[in-house]
Amino acid sequence: MDPLASPTDLSDRLGRPLTVAEEARAQALLVDASALVRAYTGQDFTRTDNETVVMRAQQGEIRLPKRPVIDVTAVVAVGAGGAPDLPVTGWQWDGIDIVRTATDSPAINLPELWYEDEAEAYPGTYRVTYSHGDPAVPPDVVAIVARMALRTMTAPTMAGGLTGETIGPYSYRTDGSGVGTAVVMTDDDRKMLELAGYRRKTGMSMVRWR
Q1: Alpha helix segments (H runs only) across 42-107
Q2: Residue 161, Cβ density class (10 Å: 0-12 exposed, 13-18 middle, ≥19 buried)
Q3: Is 113 helix (H, G, I), strand (E, B) or coil?
Q4: How many Cβ atoms sit within 10 Å of the Cβ of residue 173?
Q5: Whether 25 contacts 183, CB under 8 Å
Q6: Residue 157: what pLDDT?
Q7: Is 87 left (phi over 0), alpha (psi -120 to 50) or beta?
Q8: Is residue 162 a contact partner of residue 175, using CB atoms and an 8 Å limit?
């Protein structure tokens, strides 16, 4: 995936063009910062069409993990113990992020001779195909990613865990945990993402991705 911010975003925040040394590191730092933000939030922040995810319903509801949801095109009940995967009838999308499955039967045209106990054949796991994502990366996400990259890029030293500088007879040294060659996410970064609603606090049950 593309980084969630660009070298131009870094330059704009510095108020000057990047140096040759900064340009050499900028892309890698932005890639690392973007990966941390995506991992923490569980969101891509970019448009993805017709992605298929396999999830378990909770009380007849499937909460889709990636937002914003643009469209839901298919819901299929996953068979267990040799039962075939079958399309769901009567499912509904709430227009936000929840798909409600039918309350009677998960399948269309289920042969009567297949499996006397349908609950064992179809335990509530579904394959959902949907489109999601933003047309452009939200400005606050760009700002957080740029800030994370700039902290590392502009650190006085590349020694992780130590920030210091010596100018003539004067010197200082402070604890800059994680500052160095690696991009890190601070508590403030996490708080900003949470306050913006990008990290979901409620749990979900995901079986696997395809």
Answers
A1: none
A2: exposed
A3: coil
A4: 12
A5: no
A6: 54
A7: beta
A8: yes
Most confident of 16-30, 144-158, 169-183: 16-30
| DSSP strand pairing (69-77 vs 86-87) | antiparallel
pLDDT at 16: 95
Q: Which of 197, 182, 194, 206 is nearest to 55 (CA)?
A: 206
Please give the single-letter amino acid code of residue 103: T
Structure tokens at 149: 């990259």
Can you give the pLDDT at residue 59? 87
Q: Confirm if 138 and 44 have CB atoms less than 8 A apart.
A: no
- For the chain, how long is the longest CA-to-CA vector? 89
Give 143's strand partners: none
**Residue length, the chain?**
210
Q: Which residue shows structure tokens 């865990």?
A: 161
CA dist., res. 123 & res. 127, Å (int):
13
Nearest to 183 by CA among 2, 30, 13, 10: 30
Chain centre distance of CA 159: 30
Contacts of residue 126, Cβ cutoff 8 Å, sequence gap at least 6: 54, 55, 56, 57, 62, 75, 76, 77, 78, 88, 99, 101, 106
3 burial (CB, 10 Å; 0-12 / 13-18 / 19+) is buried
Q: Report d(CA 187, CA 192) in Å as an integer.
A: 9
